[in-house]
Design a protein that fits this description.
Shape: elongated
Number of strands: 6
Number of helices: 10
Strand order of the largest sheet: 2-1-3-4-5-6
Radius of gyration: 20 Å
Structural class: alpha/beta
Strand content: 5-15%
Low-confidence stretches: none
């Protein structure tokens, strides 16, 4: 089993719960509420010659009085993997956006995703064992949704921005003026038409509803 694990989580109750689970089988468990501190701990583990083998991290970290250079899980994962390329990563989060979760596997190389909520303790244990056995893991409900998102590969960051603007009630003209850099109205219209085809939507209202159902926004 893993010998040295780092938890990056800013909620005390979650911290204590995960730490309690880990201490059943793992001797060295370190925790932090800040991504910057997690990076410091990772660097220190390298200097000591005993690098962390597993990182369990949330994605969202609440803002407070402290200045931070890293404030989201994706940036922490990137930084940690640069320092310890072979470290295993488990994301433990309330995130339900399937597009974002898929990118965690595809672009950030995570090894497991566990959704916070019902039976989370059971799934954390299963995820740790699976990752240790060099097997990917995902909470069953999320895993089922991931099987149905092939068309998300065709939806890029610019599309997601447009969908978010639409969901906030902006007109296509307003979206064309709000995007940075600005985009022509005809380009916005073409993108929205393409997205309606991809998600099989008849109108913008249905498009937003389907995008939310699929976890794209």
């Amino acid at each position: 089993m893993f010998r040295k694990v780092l938890i990056a989580e800013d909620q005390d109750t979650t911290h204590r719960g995960v730490e309690s689970i880990l201490k059943e089988t793992i001797t060295h468990v370190s925790k932090t509420k800040y991504c910057d501190d997690a990076v410091i701990k990772v660097k220190a583990s390298l200097q000591e010659g005993m690098p962390f083998e597993l990182l369990i991290t949330d994605l969202q970290f609440e803002e407070d009085h402290r200045d931070r250079s890293i404030s989201i899980g994706e940036d922490l994962i990137t930084e940690v993997k640069q320092l310890i390329p072979n470290i295993k990563i488990i994301v433990f989060s309330v995130e339900k956006g399937i597009g974002r979760i898929k990118r965690l596997y595809d672009d950030y190389g995570i090894h497991a995703f566990v959704a916070k909520g019902r039976d989370e303790s059971l799934h954390i244990k299963r995820a740790i064992q699976a990752v240790y056995n060099k097997e990917p893991y995902c909470t069953p409900k999320i895993k089922q949704l991931l099987r149905n998102v092939d068309d998300i590969d065709e939806i890029n960051d610019a599309d997601i921005k447009i969908l978010n603007f639409l969901s906030r009630g902006l007109s296509q003209k307003q979206i064309s003026e709000t995007l940075i850099p600005p985009c022509s109205l005809s380009s916005i219209e073409k993108n929205i038409s393409r997205l309606k085809v991809l998600l099989n939507a008849k109108n913008p209202v249905q498009l937003i509803s389907l995008a939310k159902d699929r976890g794209i926004i």
